[in-house]
TrEMBL record:
GO terms for molecular function: identical protein binding; pyridoxal phosphate binding; transaminase activity. Belongs to the class-III pyridoxal-phosphate-dependent aminotransferase family. SUPFAM superfamilies: PLP-dependent transferases. This is Diaminobutyrate-pyruvate aminotransferase. The keyword Transferase applies. It comes from the Bacteria.
């Protein structure tokens, strides 16, 4: 773009990041590299540790996928053929089922709902969960209505009387008239049930969690600056602390509600208390991505699964960033033993070439009615589903060579990060993650002798300052996670080379040394 042209897209954002050198234009991309253009027309190879924020596990422009995409287009394959059979989408779901059975050791079947972006898959999960909950509410209301009629008939015929203790328990004074007492009781039941069933559904999610930025999904995303301007648009979630197993049960207990059900037992009308379907879903990421690369502890995941099952709350496992092979298994949750009722996938599932997301719904929760209620012009299109099919074929072949490579490359990278932390414990606070989803957290620099570093910390952009340094001095592209800006995310592709890891190592060491001595000239002198 000519420098004098008015920026009509993200102009303000670019102005903000150009000060720290984070606004290059990339002109070519291949494997684990991007090429940045300089004003003189020259190109610099950049080692990409961001890799589309997770969409490029198989690298930029994976040659096999690009060749296949070209073939698909040249063959005049139908791309938009809505309301017809879509065998490619079915095949993708079949393969995902095969992988789920293998990794979770489950016989369960999952049905597929296709969408275009990660946030859309989350929205579909929220909608499906609410449809399912609504249908459970209707079934319960029908049961109570039937029991109410049975109670009326039994009292009218003299086959049953109203239990005095029940009247007292509900605060009703007996009039000594069986039919009148019953109607007073039923009025109380109706009022109670109306209150219990008219409340908004309860969605649980975790502090630091990220589930997208659309109207409903943003309310599941913890970061208040993203979420709070839009709280009036959709149900607000309840946020639980990460890895605090003790907090799970009390959260459910606090939100539970009951429905009163009049039942006739041995000639007496009694009131049974039945759990009201108030829970929408519990959303979790197996490894929080935007929240700072925070892996869930297995015992925490186990508690979420157990308590959610007890309270009939579906678990929605968001694998949009952690899944599709990045952590050394296709589903990161399989490494935790956390089998979701809903599973969302996006990003790398379409090989970094197409846009596609999938919501998997476990058969025991699946409502076929949803198929007529949820759709998008672009969902399940012939191109993206064929690309996803090819991506899955690449991931699954040779006994899962891609997963092994993610594990091996990740271990190599982790070694380097650990070694930098060991040498600079005053600068690097923590190193976390699994496979090719790693994070390096830097200590707070509010007390730095460098006014620019301390200022960047105060402004929440310290991680961006370090990213700018690494990009310009070492041709290494890293960026902080969006909700934990002191954590640098490292989520490269399986094409990551040893030379690129060494470049990152050298860059991080120079950055750490400069931070240790508050050496502004080095950090900002590019
Ligand atoms: N869930 C998770 C876990 C994510 O990491 C993201 C994107 N960072 C999303 C949902 C939203 O995906 P998209 O950007 O494709 O809407």
């Amino acid at each position: 773009m000519a420098p004098e042209a008015q920026e009509l897209v993200d102009g303000t954002l670019h102005q903000n990041i150009s000060g720290i050198g984070l606004d290059p234009t990339y002109v070519r991309a291949e494997g684990n590299s991007l090429w940045a253009a300089a004003h003189d027309g020259s190109e610099t190879e950049i080692a990409d540790f961001v890799c589309g924020y997770g969409s490029l596990l198989l690298g930029h422009n994976n040659p096999e996928i690009v060749a296949y995409a070209t073939e698909v287009l040249n063959a005049r394959t139908p791309i938009h053929s809505q309301f017809s059979r879509r065998p490619e989408a079915n095949k993708v779901t079949e393969v995902l089922n095969r992988i789920a059975r293998r990794e979770f050791g489950t016989p369960d079947t999952y049905f597929g709902v296709f969408a275009n972006t990660g946030a859309e898959a989350v929205e579909a999960a929220v909608k499906h969960a609410e449809l399912d909950r609504g249908m459970r509410v209707l079934a319960l209301v029908a049961q109570v209505t039937e029991h109410t009629e049975q109670a009326r008939a039994a009292v009218a015929s003299g086959a049953a009387t109203v239990d005095a203790a029940t009247l007292t328990r509900l605060g009703i004074t007996s009039r000594g008239d069986g039919a009148g007492d019953l109607e007073a009781l039923l009025a109380e039941v109706e009022a109670h049930n109306g209150r219990a069933l008219s409340k908004a559904p309860v969605f649980f999610t975790l502090e630091g969690g990220f589930h997208g930025k659309l109207a409903a999904s943003i309310q599941l995303t913890h970061n208040p600056s993203f979420r709070t301007p839009f709280t009036s648009l959709a149900t607000n979630a309840r946020f639980l602390p990460v890895n605090s197993a003790a907090a799970v049960r009390p959260a459910f207990e606090a939100a539970r509600a009951t429905v009163l059900d009049p039942v006739v037992t041995d000639g007496t009308v009694e009131i049974a208390e039945v759990a009201a379907p108030v829970f929408g879903a519990f959303f979790v990421e197996p490894i929080q991505g935007e929240g700072g690369i925070v892996p869930l502890a297995p015992e925490f995941a186990k508690e979420i699964a157990a308590v959610s099952a007890e309270f009939d709350c579906p678990v929605a496992v968001d694998e949009i960033q952690s899944g599709s092979g990045r952590t050394g298994a296709f589903f990161a949750a399989s490494q935790l033993g956390l089998q979701g009722d809903y599973i969302t996938l996006a990003k790398s599932i379409a090989g970094g070439v197409a846009k596609l997301s999938v919501l998997l719904v476990r058969e025991s929760r699946y409502r076929p009615e949803f198929e007529l209620l949820h759709s998008s012009t672009f969902a399940k299109d012939g191109f993206s589903t064929l690309i996803a099919q090819k991506t899955l074929e690449i991931m699954e072949r040779d006994g899962g060579e891609v997963y092994r490579r993610a594990t091996e490359r990740g271990a190599r990278l982790l070694d380097v990060l650990e070694s930098v932390r060991a040498d600079f414990p005053d600068v690097v606070k923590d190193v976390r993650g699994r496979g090719l989803l790693l994070g390096l957290e830097l200590h707070d620099q509010s007390g730095s002798a460098s006014p620019n570093v301390a200022g960047a910390q105060a402004g929440g952009v310290f991680g961006y300052l370090v990213s700018g340094f690494l990009l310009h001095r070492h041709a290494v592209r890293v960026l902080p996670t969006s909700s934990a800006p002191n954590t640098l995310r490292l989520q490269p592709s399986v094409d990551l080379t040893d030379a690129q890891i060494e470049r990152l190592d050298a860059g991080l060491r120079e950055a750490c040394a400069a931070l240790r001595t508050a050496d502004e000239a080095t950090l900002l002198g590019f």
